[in-house]
Predict the structure.
Amino acid sequence: MKTIAQIAAELQGYDPQALSAADVNAFLHRLVEPLTATETLPLFNALGRVLAEDVVSPISVPPHDNSAMDGYAFAGAQLMPGQPLTLRVVGTALAGKAWAGTVGPGECVKIMTGAIMPAGLDTVVPQEFTTAGAEGHITIAADVLKTGDNRRFKGEDLMQGSVALARGALLTPAALGLVASLGLPTVTVFRRLRVAYFSTGDEILSLGEPPREGAVYDSNRYTVFGLLTRLGVEVIDLGVVRDDPAQLEAAFRTAARRADAIITSGGVSVGEADHTRTMMKKLGDVAFWRIAMRPGRPMAVGRIAATEKNRAKSASSAYPSSAGSYQNDIEAPSGGAVLFGLPGNPVAVMVTFLAFVRPALLRMMGSTHTAPPLLRATSTEAMRKKSGRTEYQRGLVTTAADGTLHVRTTGNQGSGVLSSMVQANGLIVLHHGQGNVAVGDPVDVMVFDGVI
Ligand code: AMP
Ligand code: MG
């Protein structure tokens, strides 16, 4: 397990005051490690979990060559260009009930979809390409098929002994079906990742509290809850924590004891009067960043110790002098929970979660597919963009009449404005080096859950 200082030393040009989005992900990739503990679960309980072992196919799927159509099976070598072919029907093969007889030249077997191909036959003519001939005969029209048509090969989906799903694969509905098709009732998956989260700030009201001047209701806990639940982790909600050192310390300690990762919102920007940053420093090995992005510039990452650190050592690092720097005079806690200290603004929380936290959590979950998929869409509006930072705009992707994807922004892009986030189905990602966008330019969109 590496300390913040060790990772910082590994990354070329690491500047905590001006990190690019790519640097952030590179850093987090080194900071977090996949879980090691596994469990074996019945398939119905494994949706959304990550495979901890390769699933090796104990059988071939399908187990035999079989027919892809309802029709007649025959030996394709008898087909002649430009000529119809008349065959005598000598039997019937049903799905689940094979036809065991032999089939000679000039003969065929009536066959249903999924039925085993009778020995020596390699081609199926669909019912609709045939006409009934004399008693017990069919005629295949000229040039409607070729040898091998409409036959599925044994092992076409999976061959016995091959890796059907690799360790690190997310168990999607399709993956569950694939495992089931192998006859396997259980899978070995990584244990569920535990993530604790809380909101900080004296101005943050819990739901149920009466409105108060200058105070806002806590929305971040709800978005974070939703994002984490969709990811399939175990959530530990630690509420709203007052800007009080004792309460903050208790919350961080509880979180570090119970969880693999901690997500906080608020209190990480430079010049914050509150105790959040100080407490993060005191209890862990934490870097404070300013990221070249919009929204979501300030962020804290590191590890929070589950148990007391050496008091004498941590005393000097409790009140850092230079904002935004990291202290490396303390030992990294052995173990502890990974900290993602997100900014307070509700949209910044979602953006930093989707861009950085989600890939890092997926890595911790054992997943090998951590990068969010990007779609390419045509911008229907011009966007101002400063080069040298990554900007995330709330976007609505639609399919145009010509079938291509179009995207526009969803109105007020203020970092506290959740209504434009609600209307969006993805984030338009204007990359670090990118400049202004003109109408008709292609842009990348990070689509939200459920869109694809
Ligand atoms: P901060 O990062 O603490 O400076 O917070 C930035 C802005 O986000 C302030 O306007 C806060 O009131 C707001 N904010 C912080 N935490 C929350 C929260 N949990 N829910 C809603 N808004 C918040
Ligand atoms: Mg604050």
The mean pLDDT is 92. Residues 374-447 form a domain with the Beta-clip fold (CATH 2.40.340.10). The CA atoms of residues 261 and 361 lie 8 Å apart. The two ends are 35 Å apart (CA to CA).
